[in-house]
Design a protein that fits this description.
Blueprint lengths: L3 H21 L9 H11 L191 E2 L18 E2 L1 H7 L24 H59 L1 H34 L9 H18 L1
Parallel strand pairs: 1-2
Length: about 400
């Protein structure tokens, strides 16, 4: 049971606590606001371990800045220049880094999960041990970048440039590298299981000990690549160029491929015996008795000759057609040229103009004469009594005119 003494004690304690808070509250250390951190970053170019969640640094010039250990979740770094900056252990989850510049930037142990880094420049950036899961690097430049031991699972590297990049012992399972360029890349021990490498370029890449189980590798360029000891179990290869690639001690169990890739394998190095079926040679026509073989051979030769004759006839017709077309074009060109020259000559010479007028007058007179003769022929036919209902006067006029036209064209 609570007595009066206990109640008074509690009241005194509460009053003392209130007096203490009022007296000493302004002296307690409070975390700085984001604006204070930004002012520090602007003034000194450094803000390690700062809390900058959701900060807007769009287009900011942060070259050689020190943001190591900073918390920058959901930050907007679009178009920002962080070249040479120290971003080790920085937290950039879900950050917008589209078209940002991070050349020679230190991102060791950084966390960028779900970040959007599309079309960004990470040339020679250090991302050793970085968490890059599900980051969008599509169309980005990562030439010479260091991604050793990085976590790249489910990341998007479509059309990314990873020339001479180092990805040793990285985890890239389920990542998308379609059409990525990884020439001369260092991929020792990298986990590429269930990855999409379709149409990518891994020429001269060093992928010894890499894991490629169930990877999609259609139309991949593996020319000169080193796949010593790599695991390619159940990999899909269609029209994949493996010429001069080294498959020493590689595991090729369950390899799914086409005849074109098998032809390329014939020019690869150290392919394990029996793992890739060579292209079977055709049994030809002689697969049974000699008489059947002879008949098949004669039939094949007959069909070959028939095809050859038809093909020759088609080629000959095509040649004739092309020659005819060229002839017509030449004649049309010459006629047009002569007609133009004739008209120019008439326009420039008064005498030729008079001759042209006389020729036209003569043609008109011929037309009158023809009409007159046709009329005469009609009258003569009428006099001879050969005009009837079926052959009236106009019929003979038309007949005569038609005949004169034919004679003119032939003459």
């Amino acid at each position: 049971m609570i007595n009066d003494q206990t109640i008074l004690t509690n009241i005194r304690t509460s009053i003392f606590a209130i007096i203490f808070m009022v007296a000493f509250f302004p002296l307690l250390p409070f975390p700085a606001l984001a604006i204070d951190y930004l002012m520090m970053l602007k003034k000194t170019g450094a803000c390690p371990n700062c809390e900058l969640e959701g900060v807007d640094l769009k287009g900011a010039m942060l070259v050689n800045a020190d943001l190591s250990g900073a918390k920058m979740w959901d930050a907007d770094l679009k178009w920002a220049d962080l070249s040479g900056a120290n971003l080790s252990a920085v937290q950039l989850q879900r950050a917008d880094m589209e078209k940002a510049r991070l050349i020679n930037t230190n991102l060791e142990n950084a966390k960028l999960r779900y970040a959007d880094a599309e079309k960004s420049n990470f040339t020679a950036a250090n991302m050793n041990h970085a968490d890059l899961r599900e980051v969008d690097f599509e169309n980005s430049r990562l030439r010479g970048a260091i991604l050793d031991n990085a976590d790249l699972r489910s990341a998007n590297f479509r059309r990314a440039d990873l020339t001479r990049a180092s990805m040793q012992n990285a985890k890239a399972r389920d990542a998308d590298f379609e059409r990525a360029k990884m020439t001369n890349a260092l991929l020792t021990g990298t986990d590429f299981r269930d990855i999409n490498l379709n149409r990518s370029d891994l020429s001269n890449a060093y992928a010894a000990g890499g894991r490629f189980e169930r990877a999609q590798m259609r139309r991949v360029n593996l020319t000169g690549a080193n796949l010593t000891g790599a695991n390619l179990t159940n990999v899909r290869m269609d029209i994949t160029n493996v010429r001069h690639a080294d498959f020493k001690d590689a595991i090729l169990v369950g390899l799914i491929t086409d005849d074109k890739t098998k032809e390329y394998f014939e020019r690869a190095k150290n392919v394990p015996t029996g793992t890739v079926a060579k292209k079977k040679k055709s049994g030809g026509l002689c697969t049974s008795e000699l008489s059947v073989c002879k008949g098949n051979l004669e039939n094949a030769l007959e069909k070959k000759q028939l095809f050859s004759d038809r093909w020759s006839a088609i080629v000959k017709k095509e040649m004739e057609y092309k020659q005819t077309i060229r002839k017509w074009k030449l004649e049309a060109s010459r006629n047009a040229e002569y007609k133009q020259l004739y008209n120019d000559a008439i326009a420039q010479n008064t005498g030729l103009q008079d001759q042209e007028k006389a020729r036209k007058t003569e043609d008109e007179q011929k037309d009158v004469t023809n009409t007159y003769l046709a009329a005469e022929l009609g009258l003569m036919a009428e006099d001879l009594g050969i005009i009837s209902e079926n052959y009236p006067h106009d019929y003979w006029v038309n007949v005569w005119t038609h005949l004169r036209n034919v004679v003119d064209r032939l003459g």
